[in-house]
Each structure stands twice: as structure tokens, then as C-alpha cells.
Design the sequence.
């Protein structure tokens, strides 16, 4: 059976007012929450074969933190540019494109 974990990016910072949404970073709570999520996933053995992330800084940062907490290789992190500011169909496509090659996403 295939397993899919859906994770939303952690809390982002709004301290920089003139920054593009794509480049908005995590705030401290976001970093802390991502670390906690990664630790929880490690303890519960929720370890995916691949992590797919949008290119937004806050999403990529969340994915990297979780990836590191799970002791995964950076080669297991895929950036999918179609996942930024998109709809559910693009997310479904991203998952379906990888279904035959992985058991846990």
C-alpha cells in the first residue's frame, strides 16, 4: 500500500514588507514547528522515500528541516515549480507522476 503525507509549510515571517511572496522566509515559530514535526515523524517512523516541495522559500525551508530531522539525503528532496500558487489538480499530478516509483511520499 502506498502512503502519502501532506505537510503544509511552517509559519512564515511578515517582517519584511517589500519581499515577494515566493521569497518569504520562516519565522522563529516556523523553524521550531518544523523541527518538532521532523522529530515527531522520526519517532513515529513516518519516513517518506521522497519529499516534494514547491520552490517557495518557506516551503523549501520546512522541507529541508524535516528532511534533516529524518536523516534523509538531499537527493530525496524534489522541487516542483508547478506547486507554487496552484490548484489541487497540480498537486494530484505531482503525486501521480511519482506513484510508480515510490511507496511513501
Sequence:
Amino acid at each position: 500500500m502506498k502512503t502519502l503525507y501532506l505537510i503544509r509549510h511552517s509559519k512564515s515571517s511578515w517582517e519584511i514588507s517589500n519581499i515577494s511572496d515566493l521569497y518569504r522566509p520562516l519565522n522563529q515559530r516556523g523553524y521550531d514547528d518544523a523541527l518538532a514535526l521532523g522529530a515527531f515523524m522520526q519517532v513515529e517512523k513516518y519516513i517518506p522515500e521522497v519529499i516534494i516541495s514547491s520552490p517557495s522559500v518557506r516551503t523549501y525551508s520546512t522541507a529541508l528541516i524535516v528532511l534533516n530531522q529524518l536523516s534523509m539525503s538531499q537527493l530525496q528532496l524534489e522541487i516542483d515549480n508547478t506547486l507554487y500558487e496552484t490548484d489541487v489538480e497540480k498537486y494530484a499530478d505531482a503525486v501521480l507522476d511519482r506513484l510508480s516509483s515510490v511507496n511513501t511520499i
The beta strands are 51-53, 77-79. The first strand starts at residue 51 and ends at 53.
